Amino acid sequence: MKSREQVEVSVVNAAKQMSARGLSRGTSGNVSARVDDAMWVTPSALPYAVMEPHDLVLVDWDGNTLQGSRKPTTEWPLHAALYRARPDVGAVVHAHAPFCTTLATLRRGIPAFHYMVGVAGGDSIRCAPYATFGTPELAVAAVDALRDRRACLLANHGMVALGDSPGAALELAAEVETLAELYWRALQVGEPVLLNAEQMADALDRIRTY
């Protein structure tokens, strides 16, 4: 089991990489990691380039600050709802990745146009209905869109990726952004040919044992 310090460092590293890799610009997006019945989350409105482990905020599922002097991300309800609903999840990355967000403004998920869609856990990456940022309604919409999945888009907003660790969630977020870019590029030419249920089932079996 990782120490508290190791968890904090992993959250900050993922947040910095999220920004450096272009998955979120400015201070948009947020990262968290589960710690028993609470979570370390990135603070609100602090540039990732200057963020350090002591800037993180330890928050319980009801939004109470247990440790830290900064204000937690406004999306803490989203993170808390996902940890409550998904005991298998150890970390959450929420990003405003450009291609994911482009599709999300069209309220369009990512269908089985490529077998790697299966890395998110199913034969599609859903787009959750729109709800105002930082609200319980958005949290409910995300939990539903992530049913049996590890990533989803958020309508007119961005995307969410889940993982065992902040690093794993970040890598999934990056993969989903690549898929979103490929799908967007294909749509410039026409509607991509989708894989059928049997083909995706076979791909999912292979991905699970990869």
- Name of the top-level CATH class: Alpha Beta
Number of helical elements: 6
User: Which H/E pattern describes the elements?
Assistant: HEEEEHEHEHEEHH
CATH topology: L-fuculose-1-phosphate Aldolase
Strand ordering within the main sheet: 4-3-2-1-5-8-7-6
Description of the molecule:
The chain is of the alpha+beta class. It has one domain (4-208): L-fuculose-1-phosphate Aldolase (3-Layer(aba) Sandwich), CATH 3.40.225.10. It has 6 helices and 8 strands, in the order αββββαβαβαββαα. The chain has helices at 4-20, 76-85, 98-105, 136-145, 166-187, 197-208; strands at 30-35, 38-41, 57-60, 65-67, 91-95, 127-128, 151-154, 158-163. It has an 8-stranded mixed beta sheet with strand order 4-3-2-1-5-8-7-6, sandwiched between helices. A hairpin with a 2-residue loop joins strand 1 (30-35) and strand 2 (38-41). Helix 1 (4-20) runs parallel beside helix 5 (166-187), helix 2 (76-85) crosses helix 4 and helix 3 (98-105) packs across helix 5 (166-187). The longest helix has 22 residues, at 166-187. The two termini are 24 Å apart.
Identify the notable features of this structure and list them briefly.
210 residues, L-fuculose-1-phosphate Aldolase, 8-stranded mixed beta sheet, 8 strands, globular
